């Protein structure tokens, strides 16, 4: 995968510094909003695919090809979100193992 392939990702915002009480503020970066938008999109794709499977099971499916395409899109979107999550967790674990 080249660098050009991931240029659609928004830049990350730096975490906020702790306030006077010592508690860090939650980052309000663009990545968090992008990720929650992606999760909402994946959820809607999964709901659409589930409705198509329900129609297929009931014998009401008029377009089998579209149901299979929706199912495959939902599967690929879910795999993408899981890979992003896995890479984020791996990066977090690496940061936690770094010695200061």
From TrEMBL:
Record keywords, A-Z: Bacterial flagellum, Cell projection, Cilium, Flagellum
Subcellular localization(s) per the UniProt record: Bacterial flagellum basal body
Superkingdom, natural source: Bacteria
One protein family per Pfam: FliE
Family as reported in the entry's similarity comment: Belongs to the FliE family.
PANTHER family, alphabetized: FLAGELLAR HOOK-BASAL BODY COMPLEX PROTEIN FLIE, PTHR34653
Record's protein name: Flagellar hook-basal body complex protein FliE
Record lineage: Bacteria, Pseudomonadati, Pseudomonadota, Betaproteobacteria, Burkholderiales
Name of encoding gene: fliE
